[in-house]
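tool=predict chain=A
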Amino acid sequence: SKDLGRTKRQILEELADIGGVYVPEFYTSERKGGFLVPALGTRHVVRAARVETLDDEAYPEKPVAPLGDVVHHRLAVEVMRGCTRGCRFCSAGTYYRPVRERSVDSICRQIERSTQATGRREVGLLSLSTADYSGVDQLLYVLKNMHGKERLGLSLPSTRIDALTDEQFKALNAVSRTSSFTVAPEAGSRRLRNAVNKDFSDQTIRDTVSTLLDNNIQTIKLYFMIGLPTETDEDIEAMINLIGELADMARERSKRRTVSVAVSPFSPKPFTPFQWEPIESVDSLLTKAQRIKSAVRRYRNVRVSYRDPHMSHLETVMARGDRRVASLIWHAWHIGARFDGWDEHFSWKRWCEAAAEIGVDMETYTAALPLDQPLPWSAIATGVSDAFLRAERLRAYEEVVTADCRRGPCSQCGACVDVSPRFIKAERVGLESSDSPQWGRRKSSSDETAKLYYYRMAYAKGEDARFLSHRDTMNLFIRALVAAGVPLAYSQGYHPHPKIAFGPPLVTGVMGTCELFNFATVRPVDITCDMPAPWLPKGIEVVGVRPLRGKPAALESRMVAARYRLTMWGAVNRSGMERAVATMLERESVVVSSTKKGRLVERDIRPMVFELRVVDEAGGSAIEAVLEAKPGRTCRPDDLIRALFPQRHPADFRMVRTGCLSTTHDGVLTTLR
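tool=predict ok
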């Protein structure tokens, strides 16, 4: 736009004319009750933008897939947007109203195209309450029938206690067998659940957990909140008792069944009925969390974790803060705040120092707010009326439940004025008993007992990929082979895995010119080096592939040594390299030390150095070494460098594994191919 001669002001004016765009610069602020509040004046309130339908065009068919492992390493597939449950603490339930559902065909098309494009088979069916999706029966039925050829793994977000039926859960497990499942009671007593609009009884919770345990779920994950408005000691005691009951139910099934409890402090959010409420003090929240953890300690199958209340206080400051919070964030960063979402990096003291430095009182944002207090977010409208939020807050204190407007009367929240809700026509699909999963090892079938065909693939791992971990490299090749249409064979266990076995891993930072792995297919395939190439990153190249006669021995069991070439970056002193090599070869013992799990470990690597010499290389010299590489007895190239050049760091060298070696019948080393 600047290239077209527009000024910054003109660009902002044009952006402000777009629905849903808020330009703070156009709203002067005035202090009211401790807050800086935008003065509307001649400017209008910005209404949140809404799309009427969730069309296919809005979803990528070829999503960007990270090379490394991430927390949520699955394809994200949205099944619907919005929620009608009306939990009074939930900001997303307000932001994303009204409900708009995608068709089953649209969802399945995205799954099919995305899995083909990326090779990923883990899919998350995402929404605020996926079990409420009108087409959930039909969707699970269709995906179940895709399971045999696609090997899909499905996951759902945390689910309401009363949302998923036994039949639906069996259908979900027929698609993707899971060993854990997450449910969110949020509060321990029926009274407090009514206050936050979670309308289900203790018996419903017990019945749901019983169903999960009956379906072979090994770990029940429970989400609770503490510090909710109207909470009392009796509610905390009710939570403790409920956890104990569920722990007993799990232990009755098996000693290996566990209950994982996550406790989070309530944090008031804008555009919710609880936006005026305070967050409890840190001391009070810590006392409650520690009380819960201490009380259930007698249950050996229960694990309790809780969020740092300081972090929840900071979350509240950022959620309800005014324009001064931007300066707070900058100053905290300036004095060292980094990665504060991780407990090990979070420092509440640092944030307090930043607040004091700029004169911000964080308690202003965490305290109770008068109902007539002008709010910093008053220039933005989500569509849900302020009158509705106030009425819902009153109903919370009266412990009155507001019905789900999907099934009950309209609650007159105001969200459907601009965009109407869109529900698909629900189709009830019967799931016969034969469709339910067989727990444990599956019965053999003709497909599972059919002849398998084995192949060996060789690849080079270059400079651009040398910091990719061994596990990430394995996953890359699995996804690339799947995306290329290679019919991989899978194990027959509870969680089927592709039958693929890699050779010993490269040390992170080390390159390789001929790394190997074996894999099996269910039918013969004319595999070429080019087939997986489109799905491999720069730095990974397939250099060979060949069929094998019968099931091969594990590469790791055959490999006894590895050949390396070590080249120093920058200027090279050949005479110094030769002296270091000669000194090592003359010694009978070379001890290197490393730290493992906090303790010092010493090893003599000299017996594991089979060959060591200085060789000519284009532009200089390099060290060539043959090092022992057996399970439990391996000499790493970085250990060799530390022993040869104590004054140097392994990062000063370019390390390349040029061959994996086995032995012939007469004990001669030979390269594995």
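The first strand starts at residue 29 and ends at 32. The chain has a mean pLDDT of 89.
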